[in-house]
Amino acid sequence: MKSFLISDNRDTWVGMRLAGINGIIIHEKDELLEALNAARKDEEIGLIIMTEKIVDLAKDEIMEFKLKVARPLIIEIPDRHGTMRSENAITNYIRESVGIRI
């Protein structure tokens, strides 16, 4: 299985390329949804890596995708400037996804 990066940041893209991960740089919501659908159709891609800013462009659509589609797995990473999320981001994600308060 391959990994694929969807980023808004050139530095993140270059870093991932150095690690052997292909990807694209985008800045618009429609480009993001197109890239997500194309990556989903590629049978070789098992992991989609997205920067936090990219996820924020289409948060609802990506959350729905995460909940309904088993493959590829989507993970969210900070860019080189660090995370924009609160320290309780994972707890909030679990609460939103599963409905369990931990």
UniProtKB/TrEMBL annotation:
Keywords of the record: Ion transport, Transport
Keyword Glycoprotein carried by entry: no
SUPFAM superfamilies according to UniProt: AtpF-like
Pfam families tied to this protein: ATP-synt_F
Lineage top rank: taxon: Bacteria
Organism whose genome encodes this protein: Zhenhengia yiwuensis
InterPro entries: ATPase_V1-cplx_f_g_su (IPR008218), ATPase_V1_fsu_sf (IPR036906)
Family: Belongs to the V-ATPase F subunit family.
Protein name: V-type ATP synthase subunit F
GO molecular function: proton-transporting ATPase activity, rotational mechanism
